[in-house]
């Protein structure tokens, strides 16, 4: 349990007795207490949120030497902390529409760190220690139970989601290990076959080159021929502009097909029909 020291009279006070101390011993003065363990000051009703403090081991450990105390794991303490978090969540929520009497009851509850978690003990505790009527104690419990059920459903949904993700990852890994390796599909079409040393494909390079050059009795400049063929090649692929990869392939094919064309001859920058 957390203990405080009154900053007005210096008296040591258990946390549940702070409010009574304010109303009797130091009534009318500015409310202020300090925690006996962590020495932190709390003004007004701030002390109510101070439900757990540092342990003796943490208090006297030599932090300057980098020594960090590992606190023992206490499942019961974890459950109690979760229980107190639910009480604070109810006060912060607008879902429950608390009456002034119920809000006051929850405010008193959050200042106590040993609130029972069973209905019968809870109602006895609230009735005897907090002087609440039986029916009001039941109302407080019903609200608490509703909040706990809501948190339980949310936790179950989160656990189910995590489980489903893990199972999906395992299944995906299993399928990838069992599936045979597949060959990477080629984006660009390759030549279908080679006939007489001339690569043939859907785009008829020899025919197109010969057709353009034969129309020029004096020959055609190499760059002009390239542009005309590029226009036909782009139209053949049904695109407005070649991609970088397609452009590289075109250049490579153009140079190769021009050298393989027996019906053409290249003289410097000029391409003519072979005589």
From TrEMBL:
GO terms for biological process: negative regulation of transcription by RNA polymerase II; rRNA processing. The gene is Dana\GF12791. The keyword Ion transport does not apply. Signal peptide: none annotated. One of its GO terms (cellular component) is nucleolus. InterPro entries: LYAR, Znf_C2H2_LYAR, Znf_C2H2_sf. One of its GO terms (molecular function) is zinc ion binding. Residues 193-203 have a biased composition (Polar residues). Residues 170-189 have a biased composition (Basic and acidic residues). Keywords: Metal-binding, Nucleus, Repeat, Zinc, Zinc-finger. This is Zinc finger C2H2 LYAR-type domain-containing protein. Residues 170-203 are annotated as: Disordered. It is found in: Nucleus. Its main location: nucleus. Gene3D superfamilies: 3.30.1490.490. SUPFAM superfamilies: beta-beta-alpha zinc fingers. Residues 33-60 form the Zinc finger C2H2 LYAR-type domain. The keyword Zinc applies.
């Amino acid at each position: 349990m957390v203990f405080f020291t009154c900053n007005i009279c210096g008296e040591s006070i258990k946390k549940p007795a702070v409010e009574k101390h304010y109303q009797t011993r130091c009534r009318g003065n500015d409310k202020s207490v300090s925690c006996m363990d962590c020495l932190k000051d709390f003004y007004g009703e701030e002390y109510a949120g101070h439900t757990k403090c540092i342990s003796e081991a943490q208090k006297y450990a030599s932090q300057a030497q980098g020594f960090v105390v590992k606190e023992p794991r206490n499942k019961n303490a974890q459950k109690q902390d979760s229980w107190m978090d639910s009480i604070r969540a109810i006060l912060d929520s607008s879902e429950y529409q608390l009456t002034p009497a119920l809000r006051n009851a929850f405010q008193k509850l959050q200042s106590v760190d040993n609130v029972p978690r069973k209905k019968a003990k809870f109602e006895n505790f609230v009735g005897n220690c907090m002087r609440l009527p039986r029916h009001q104690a039941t109302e407080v419990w019903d609200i608490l139970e509703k909040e706990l059920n809501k948190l339980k459903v949310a936790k179950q949904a989160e656990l189910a989601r995590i489980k489903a993700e893990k199972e999906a990852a395992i299944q995906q890994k299993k399928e990838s290990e069992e599936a045979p390796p597949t060959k990477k599909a080629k984006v660009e079409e390759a030549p279908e076959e080679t006939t007489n040393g001339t690569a043939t494909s859907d785009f008829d390079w020899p025919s197109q080159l010969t057709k353009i050059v034969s129309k020029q009795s004096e020959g055609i400049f190499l760059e002009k021929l390239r542009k005309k063929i590029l226009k036909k090649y782009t139209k053949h692929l049904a695109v407005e502009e070649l991609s970088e990869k397609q452009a590289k392939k075109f250049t490579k094919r153009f140079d190769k097909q021009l050298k393989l064309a027996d019906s053409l001859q290249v003289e410097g920058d000029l391409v003519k029909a072979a005589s």
